[in-house]
Amino acid sequence: MRTELRDDVIVVGGGVVGLTTAVVLAERGRRVRVWTREPAERTTSAVAGALWWPYHIRPVASARSWALRSLEVYEELADRAPQTGVRMVEGVLGGAELDEVAGWAAARLPGLRASTREEYAGTGVWARLPLVDMAVHLPWLRQRLEAAGGVVEERTVSALAEVPAPVVVNCTGLGARRLVPDPALRPVRGQLVVVENPGVRTWLVAGTVGEEATYLLPHPDRLLLGGTAQEGDWSTEPDPAIAEAIVRRCAALRPEVAGARVLEHRVGLRPARDAVRLEREPLPGGRVLVHNYGHGGAGVTVAWGCAQEAAALAAPC
User: Are 241 and 212 in contact (CB under 8 A)?
Assistant: First the structure.
């Protein structure tokens, strides 16, 4: 059996937060293993619409800082190569006020402006933001981790304290409800419909009313239509009636969507919490446990900022 070294880290959780955290740790010289119950393509992250924006998670000041640090990384990835899955795409955030957004993001988002009536019927903000194709980005993250010497293993964890490493990083998302345990975690069910892209080139987020969210997120060969925000719903089965309603709402905003061929139905459970938990706690034997979970629907938005902070917390004292 290999002797555990001081620099050894096991990251539990293989979604976008876990993989990104593992990449940052590995590229800082740590020996990193990711333990994941299922491959990345079957995690909640694979279902994400993955448009960069800090979707009302707390603590607010920290979330904005994490988001802006992540934005820097995504801009670099978008410039580098298409294999990262990141593109900078223009669109409208419906219901947002320019003054509200500009107060913290204007310096980092050139071209930010109020949307026109032709772009969106109501109040909105036009912006150029990172849009991430998770089917491409998650495998790319794994490849980047492996290039830095990290490994990914499919392992089921029954207790965080039993993970055999000097440093354990908990990126288990909704799984932390049982593993920590943390009853403050709750699922927010998201359902979306994937259709052939009929020529939509800009994204549109029209906001959330009750449990209904309306958004269109374009990729070159397909269009993601959403969605839902169903608090406390654990079902991962697509609901045909909800899917029909999603297409109907999106077609009301972009009529060309009405006849688009449906390719896939997706459901994911966002790991919601009143505030993100990003902190360090001791384990028996002088070991360390770092928590990095509870990001709700903003995992992609804050992944790199949270990963950098988690890596700092995982550093030897």
Answer: no
The structure tokens 């995992």 sit at: 299
- Per the structure block, which two tokens stand in for 130? 């990172």
Q: Give, in order, the Cα–Cα distances in Å from 218 to each of 22, 125, 199, 254.
A: 29, 18, 9, 12
pLDDT per residue over 14-67, tens digit each?
999 999 999 999 999 999 999 999 888 888 898 888 999 877 799 999 999 999
pLDDT tens per residue across span 171-189: 999 999 999 999 999 999 9
CB 157 within 8 A of CB 279: no
Exposure class string for 148-170: b at 16+ Cβ within 10 A, else e: bebebeeeebeebeebebbbbbb
Q: How far apart are CA 93 and CA 203, in angstroms?
A: 8
The span from the CA of 220 to the CA of 203, in Å, is 12
Q: Are 257 and 195 in contact (CB under 8 A)?
A: yes
Residue 43 burial by Cβ neighbours in a 10 Å radius (0-12, 13-18, 19+): buried
Helix 60-80 to helix 98-105 angle, to the nearest 10 degrees?
Answer: 80
